[in-house]
What we know:
- The chain has one domain (2-209): Rossmann fold (3-Layer(aba) Sandwich), CATH 3.40.50.
- It contains 8 helices and 8 strands, in the order βαβαααβαβαβββαβα.
- It has helices at residues 13-24, 31-41, 44-55, 61-72, 90-99, 112-120, 160-183, 196-209; strands spanning 2-6, 27-30, 81-84, 104-109, 122-125, 131-133, 152-153, 187-191.
- The strands form 2 sheets. It has a 5-stranded parallel beta sheet with strand order 2-3-1-4-8, with helices on both faces. The chain has a 3-stranded antiparallel beta sheet with strand order 6-5-7.
- Helix 4 (61-72) runs parallel beside helix 5 (90-99).
- It is globular and about 45 Å long.
- The termini are close together.
Amino acid sequence: MNIVMLGPQGSGKGTQAEFLAARLKISTVSTGALYRENIKRKTKLGKLAEKFTKKGVLGPNYLTNNLMKAELIKSKYKKGVIIDGYPRNLVQAKFLNKIRNIDLAILININQRETLNRLGGRRICSQCGETYNIIKKRPKKDMICDKCRGKLIQRADDYPKAIRKRLIVYRRETKPVLDYYHKQGKLIKIDGEASIQVVLKRLIKVLKIKGIK
């Protein structure tokens, strides 16, 4: 079973990907984690990726595609995978189609106000990348990561003005991806504005309807 998780920033698609992966007993992969891991290991692609992350911009298609391709050939994805944050645009969707047959594309949707509320409270560990929220998922110690004791920071692109710009880009680039999977009969839409557990129940219900347990 190969699934891609789609949705605007703050929709919780990464969280739901982890829950579904545990239920389906398959692995997850995210572009954010791939970038961080390759940068940390100082791979050839990682050194290139670091140039873009330092500028605070998304890596180009060829870089993200090659990172994903190199990852998905690993044996741990043989039984399937849930991909979070990729593909971001039609070029990436078509590239992914060449290296992995996607069974379902799940869109977890939230409105702009909810995105602003969620991302405005998001804090990221500067060392391990663990995500927190000052309203819904606070660390035990203020601004300190529970896992590695690293300092929590608010990313520059999590401020309201930057979020609105990111949403404009998201809508422009993701619509063709949604149309792409819709035409293939693979797109599932889920309302993501409820609690994590409620959204998970909705996902499980839809998957059962599709014959996936």
